[in-house]
Design brief:
Blueprint (H helix, E strand, L loop, with lengths): L5 E3 L8 H19 L13 E5 L2 E5 L3 E3 L4 E5 L7 H5 L17 E5 L13 E5 L7 E2 L2 E3 L2 E3 L22 E5 L3 E2 L2 E3 L2 E3 L3 E9 L2 E3 L2 E5 L1 E15 L2 E4 L4 E6 L1 E7 L2 E2 L5 E6 L5 E3 L2 E4 L5 E8 L2 E3 L2 E4 L21 E6 L2 E3 L2 E6 L12 E9 L2 E3 L2 E6 L9 H10 L5 E2 L3 E5 L3 E2 L2 E3 L7 E2 L6 E3 L7
Length: 448
C-alpha cells in the first residue's frame, strides 16, 4: 500500500524511529500540514493520512503532538503481555521466559512528568486543537504503548514495580473532539492509560488495557460515546472506567479485571447505560454513582467480588470497608435491574470485623428502581495465597465448593434517600430501608 497520504515510520527520511519515534511522527504530521493547506478543493481538501508502525520496538523520547483531523496511527499487533507477572518473578528466572517484554508494534514511553509539570507532560500522544470545527476522526489502532516501569512512590512498597506510579500517560486528549476511535490497542504499565476531555461520539472498542494506574478516564464533560468489548483492569489506586458530567455513555460487553479502585465510577453522569459486562474486583466500591447521577441503567451485568489471591499484592487495596457497598448509588431515578452479584470472602477478611457487608447501597437521591437482582453471598475457607498469578486467579474463580452462606445486607437505603423501589433483590431480613417512604417487595422465602 503506497500513496502520498500513507506513511511508514521506518521509511521516513527524518529521524530514527527506533531511537525516537516521537520525532519521526511529529515530522510526518508537519509534512501532512504542509501539503494539505486548502480546505475546499473540488469538494475535498484535507483528507488526513495514515501513519504505519510495522512490528518492532520504537522508543519515544519526544511527545507526539496531534492537531489535525482524519489521522490514523496504525500498527500490526497490540503486543500485550503481563509486565506485572514478570516483575514479580525472581530476575534469575527471566532467562527461561519465552518473552520478556511486550511485542507487536510497540511504543516504549521514555517520558514522564516531573513535580510541578502539567500531567500531560508525561503523555506519549497529546491531542489538542482550538477553534471550529472540533478536531475530528483521529484514530489509534492495533499497536502497543508500554510505560516500561513503575517507580518508588514513597509508600514503602517492597517492589516499586507494583506502585502504579510513573507520571506517564499513553493517550491524552485535551480539547473537545468528535468521533475519535481507539481500537485494538494494547496499553500497559502507564499511570494513566487513556485520558480524554470533552468527548463526543467517542469509540473505545476491543482494546487490551491492563496493569495501568487508571485505564479509561473521561473528564470534563461529554456525550454519546461508547466503551465496548474491551479487556481492562486498573491498579488499586485508580479506575478501570471513570466518567464525569457525561450523558449518553454506553458501557457494554467489557471484561473488567480486578484491582481497580472501581470497575466503573460515575460522577454526575446521566442517561447512560452499563449493560452486559463482567466485572471482577477484590474490593468494595465496584460500581459507584457519585453526585447527581440520574436516569442511568445498570442491567444484566455479572459482578464478582472475592479476595486477592496473589502473594505479591496482598496487603494493598482501595481503602474501603465492607459497609461501603459493592454497588453504591447516589442520584435520582437510576435503574439497577437483573444483575447477578456474587461476593465470596473469608469472614476473617471482612472490615470492620464482624460487620455485615453491604451489596447495593443507596446513599442519596430519589426514585431509584432496584429489581430482580440475584445476590449470592458466601464465605470461603481460609487458604494460602499463591505465588503464581495465573494459577491463583483461575483457582479463585473456579472454586465454588466448600462455601457457606454469608450474612449480608443485600440492599441498604439510607434515610437521605426516599421514594425508591426495591423488588425481589433480597429477603425480608436482608433489605434495610424506611418502608414508610420507599416501596419494597422481598424475595419469597423457600417453603413459605
Amino acid at each position: 500500500m503506497t500513496g502520498k497520504n500513507y506513511y511508514d515510520v521506518t521509511e521516513w527520511g527524518v529521524g530514527n524511529p527506533y531511537e525516537d519515534v516521537g520525532e519521526v511522527l511529529n515530522s510526518i504530521i508537519a509534512d501532512i500540514k504542509k501539503r494539505q493547506t486548502e480546505t475546499d478543493v473540488r469538494g475535498g481538501g484535507k483528507p488526513g493520512a495514515v501513519i504505519y508502525l510495522p512490528p518492532g520496538d520504537y522508543h519515544l523520547r519526544t511527545q507526539v503532538v496531534i492537531d489535525i483531523s482524519y489521522l490514523k496511527i496504525l500498527g500490526s499487533g497490540h503486543g500485550f503481555v503481563s509486565s506485572s507477572i514478570r516483575y514479580n518473578l525472581p530476575e534469575r528466572e527471566w532467562a527461561d521466559l519465552h518473552e520478556v517484554w511486550p511485542g507487536g508494534s510497540r511504543v516504549l514511553v521514555e517520558l514522564s512528568s516531573q513535580d510541578g509539570e502539567p500531567e500531560a507532560a508525561g503523555a506519549a500522544f497529546y491531542v489538542e486543537r482550538d477553534g471550529n470545527p472540533r478536531i475530528s476522526s483521529v484514530e489509534f489502532e492495533n499497536f502497543c504503548i508500554d510505560g516500561l516501569h513503575f517507580v518508588d512512590d514513597g509508600s514503602g512498597m517492597m517492589n516499586p514495580e507494583n506502585t502504579y506510579t510513573n507520571g506517564k500517560t499513553g493517550i491524552y486528549i485535551a480539547s473537545a473532539q468528535d468521533s475519535f476511535r481507539l481500537t485494538g490497542m494494547g496499553l500497559v504499565y502507564l499511570e494513566h492509560a487513556v485520558t480524554i476531555y470533552h468527548a463526543d461520539a467517542l469509540s473505545i472498542h476491543d482494546n487490551f488495557i491492563a496493569e495501568c494506574g487508571s485505564c479509561v478516564e473521561l473528564r470534563g464533560w461529554g456525550q454519546a460515546s461508547k466503551i465496548t468489548d474491551n479487556l481492562m483492569g486498573a491498579g488499586y489506586k485508580g479506575y478501570s472506567i471513570f466518567a464525569e458530567n457525561f450523558g449518553g455513555l454506553l458501557i457494554a460487553s467489557n471484561n473488567i479485571f480486578p484491582r481497580g479502585m472501581s470497575s466503573v465510577h460515575f460522577v454526575n453522569v446521566a442517561r447512560s447505560s452499563v449493560t452486559g459486562n463482567r466485572f471482577h474486583s477484590f474490593y468494595p466500591g465496584m460500581l459507584v454513582l457519585e453526585g447527581s447521577c440520574s436516569e442511568n441503567l445498570v442491567a444484566s451485568n455479572h459482578f464478582l467480588r472475592d479476595e486477592e489471591p496473589w502473594a505479591p499484592m496482598l496487603g494493598y487495596d482501595n481503602g474501603l470497608d465492607d459497609r461501603y457497598g459493592l454497588l453504591r448509588i447516589s442520584g435520582n431515578h437510576n435503574s439497577v435491574l437483573a444483575n447477578h452479584i456474587s461476593e465470596t470472602v473469608r469472614r476473617q477478611a471482612i472490615r470492620p470485623s464482624g460487620a455485615r457487608p453491604v451489596i447495593i447501597h443507596v446513599v442519596s437521591g430519589t426514585g431509584n428502581y432496584i429489581s430482580n437482582n440475584h445476590i449470592v453471598a458466601t464465605a470461603e475457607e481460609p487458604k494460602e495465597a499463591s505465588d503464581s498469578c495465573y494459577a491463583a486467579q483461575v483457582d479463585a474463580l473456579t472454586a465454588t465448593g466448600r462455601l457457606a452462606a454469608l450474612d449480608v445486607t443485600a440492599v441498604l437505603v439510607e434515610k437521605e434517600s426516599a421514594q425508591n423501589t426495591v423488588l425481589d433483590s433480597g429477603s425480608e431480613d436482608q433489605v434495610i430501608l424506611d418502608r414508610t417512604c420507599n416501596a419494597f417487595r422481598a424475595v419469597p422465602a423457600v417453603g413459605r
